[in-house]
């Protein structure tokens, strides 16, 4: 028998209790030992709840109990999670977590502590809740040099974009519906501005490339500027607009970026809709691999936390190696990244504006839209981010252009 | 340093050598030890090949070398592979294999030998070449009770069906092209009759449900009867026809089946085209998860073999537990499985035939086709396989029906 504790009895924490209860028998069989939930830490009271008897408000009780070998941290946020987790590891207790802020910020350090003490720090649930990705990256793709990871890593924004595409609604309307349904937070910034996806791609990149990728270095753009007009154009072009988090290695340089991208129907990520997430990995020998599942939600996330608890129980005194050194990776500037761009500009005169566009962007592909605004939409040839931004600055100053309405990258 | 050997220097074997050479540095780092390829077993000569110096025709040389700790069996076929692998395990050498015939037939026994001796028998490459699925099933989905696995598990048939759908060609034409391109064998039976997919779903079901599923018990139907006319109807209906291998657990009963199925565009497997494969898993807490990648091919398969070699090297004296007991699972008859069916019948008189159809099948959905044959196509309501086959026998004997041209299951 192995005693375990859960820190935090919110959505994920109560999901973990539910999973441990529902699948008790098969989980114990797979762990090879009986998993005994000895404590749940939470500052609130839960009168009448089955966990009431094992609830504690004092973390030291858990920390000082030598029988507790595995702790699941599902509180979220950097503090006090970081302090709690570090203390646990220093007491030779393995920790599993669903906390992406914690892992993105302190993952390398916490992994090192676990390694030094021959215990484990596991975080499958921190990226793409119900998608097994961390373990496959660490253990299944070991024959490969990975050179690209691209994912739809945020369920809220994917739900919003899918609904905008399906129903022709605008961003604000769909966001409000998502908030009403509980799919989006009252303060939706972390999701819609891409910050959540940014932390997740930082974690994946660190594991794939073996060095610490600081999430603050990653170019991040959210979906708040995507309009129903952009969606209508995308549909016309046979494209989907998705918030993609990507990191690529080219000539030993790595760049990472989170931004809305237009992708074609033949792209495996284009069929990933609603609250589903998917992560696409390219290896130099395995080729393209994709992992698909629910990116969030109480039970999918709890499933990943419990799978990590099973692994931690199976490896009580063996470190499951990860390659994420504390050495910081210097990302290359996105300025050098090249793609084609979808651009919409508002104009005073249709003929003149096309001359201007062609003068600045060269040959472009004009798109007929269904909307009645006085604007011109076109797709550029491949340009680097740097050149594109120079050209956009140029066009902004032209007399025939009143405004640049939209710029969206297109996956080559 | 750990000495390893490869049995078989065909497509996969030479791929394994290539991967070990190309990614040498990162592979050694991930294995935590230098992997030294000491022998390659093959009966042919390979004059001038880099492996010429380590080539042997005598298996006993490998078997009796105590330094060889890990053997990769990539010969294919049941014998002599089975004898070789068993002997290796009994000499306490871990074995990794890409051989689905071997694993489907003797997997449970070989796993047990490995377990008893605290070594490993690993077979990630035996199902879906480049798709990490065995390790995720064993290690990532441990918190779940799995109740369904459905996959596109054969690249050749998926290539043929995709091409038939895209280009409106008939089966024979596309098969010939696939053979000319080397995507299909000269004798294509194992692929097009579904036998290959059958062995793979037997392996996956055994792991998911923890008991031995005998591939000979699995109802198996290939794609040879699918015509360009069926494809045209499917297109009209917005469906894809895919060869699906599936096993489902309902009320503690498990059934398994390989057959062509019509699936809607919203099904995650519908976008899996060409030589790509994908495996869809449903767990009671994680929900839907899908794994996607190249199902075959030299390098993707070799990548999986080498990843298993890395794992075997990391766990030289620790058994990585699998739950596949030698106890045989009794599958429930597919007779009780219910679906809707697409049916085409040739008729002498259009009005009369519809009366006959409605008398036997009740309310059905008639489909307008573009072909000029005198036939009627319709979709039935949900029926069990047993009832369906009784109704089909009935209709075959009706005067107004000259022939039943097609019956294809539709995923509910």
What does this structure look like?
Two copies of one chain form a homodimer. Chain A is of the alpha/beta class and 412 residues long. Chain A has helices at residues 11-22, 24-31, 59-63, 81-90, 100-116, 134-140, 155-167, 171-180, 189-192, 195-209, 228-237, 298-314, 350-361, 385-396; strands spanning 2-7, 35-41, 55-56, 68-73, 94-97, 121-122, 146-152, 219-220, 239-250, 253-264, 276-283, 287-294, 338-347, 365-367, 375-379, 383-384, 401-410. The first copy, chain A, starts with a strand and ends with a strand. The relative contact order of chain A is 0.14.
- What's the story with the biggest beta sheet of chain A? 11 strands, mixed
Helix content percent band of chain A: 25-40%
CATH fold type of the largest domain in chain A: Dihydrodipicolinate Reductase, domain 2
Number of DSSP strand runs of chain A: 17
CATH class of the largest domain in chain A: Alpha Beta
- Which whole number gives the mean pLDDT of chain A? 93
Oligomer description: homodimer
Computed CA radius of gyration of chain A, to the nearest angstrom: 24 Å
Instruction: Please state the structural category of chain A.
Output: alpha/beta
**Total discrete domains of chain A:** 3
User: What is the assigned CATH homologous superfamily of the largest domain in chain A?
Assistant: Dihydrodipicolinate Reductase, domain 2
Shape of chain A: elongated
Low-confidence stretches of chain A: none
The CATH architecture designation of the largest domain in chain A is: 2-Layer Sandwich
Biggest protein-protein contact in the assembly: A-B, 59 and 59 residues
Distance between the first and last residues' Cα of chain A? 54 Å
Number of helix segments of chain A? 14
The share of residues in extended strands of chain A comes to 25-35%
